[in-house]
Amino acid sequence: MRLDVVTIFPEYLDPLNVSLVGKARASGRLDVQVHDLREWTYDRHNTVDDTPYGGGPGMVMKTGPWGDALDSALADGYERGFGRPALIVPTPSGRPFTQELAVELSERPWLIFAPARYEGIDRRVVDEYATRMPVYEVSIGDYVLAGGEAAVLVVTEAVARLLPGVLGNAESHRDDSFAPGAMANLLEGPVYTKPPLWRGRDIPDVLLSGHHGKIARWRRDQALTRTSAHRPDLIERCAPAAFDKKDREM
Ligand code: 6GU
């Protein structure tokens, strides 16, 4: 998969060299190209923003640098044969970024991120590229960040770990909170490892019992308890058939 990121803060994307995403790049499963938006400015001050039409506070990112930067990234990716690109625009007014969307994006060959600073990018940029490729405007939660770069890191990590060969063990996806299956829409419960006793705290007996059926049931109960406490909205979304008599007695 190829990722392009166009930003006025290229150093903000340095974490893409680290850990899982860094290893995916090193192994050739992920090609990441970070571009400095200011390379597509032609005035003495490398201006990327201007005052909003209609008035109001803040600044709006200008069409010119974005158009030239995106065209350049597109020309390079097409030349190298990456296939059909999709444009990802992180914005608090986007659709919620979910595991389902992460899976959809992970199946694409080429993602181009356009993280904005200030009050956002002139709308004509998104409208222009939407005539040429799918555009995803995504929000990573109900709070406001100073810019979209942190969201690029979030989306990239969620997507990269789904790429074939990036997580060592394919089973690692299976129990993910939000993964499809029997535990669909439930949050993961607690986990434990050695030593068996730490500061007077021991391990739940069932996990030492070797009884796989009981362990699976206990994990499901823990997931249900945790989900009820932290995300009751997720329980509402479960099919009634997902629960049995024992659940209803909890
Ligand atoms: Cl994607 N961008 C910004 N600036 N703020 C956000 C966001 C994105 N998602 C939640 N808040």
Structural account:
- One of its GO terms (cellular component) is cytoplasm.
- Keywords: Cytoplasm, Methyltransferase, S-adenosyl-L-methionine, Transferase, tRNA processing.
- It catalyses: guanosine(37) in tRNA + S-adenosyl-L-methionine = N(1)-methylguanosine(37) in tRNA + S-adenosyl-L-homocysteine + H(+).
- Its EC number is 2.1.1.228.
- With 250 residues, the protein is α/β, with parallel strands linked by helices.
- It folds into 2 domains: 2-160, 3-Layer(aba) Sandwich (Alpha/beta knot), CATH 3.40.1280; 174-249, tRNA(m1g37)methyltransferase, domain 2 (Trp Operon Repressor, Chain A, Orthogonal Bundle).
- It is 35% helix and 15% strand.
- It is built from 9 helices and 7 strands; from the N terminus they run βαβββαβαβαβααααα.
- The strands form 2 sheets. The protein has a 5-stranded parallel β-sheet.
- α1 (19-26) links the parallel β1 (2-7) and β2.
- α3 (99-106) packs across α5.
- It is elongated.
- The chain binds 6-chloroguanine.
Question: Which spans have pLDDT < 50 for at least 5 consecutive residues?
Answer: none
Report the CATH topology name of the largest domain. Alpha/beta knot
By DSSP (H or I, 4+ residues per run), the number of helices equals 9
Q: Strand-residue fraction?
A: 5-15%
What Rg is obtained from the alpha carbons, in whole angstroms? Answer: 22 Å
- The helix content is 25-40%
What are the salient characteristics of this protein?
250 residues; 2 domains; single chain; cytoplasm; tRNA (guanine-N(1)-)-methyltransferase; S-adenosyl-L-methionine; tRNA_MeTrfase_TRMD/TRM10; alpha/beta; Alpha/beta knot
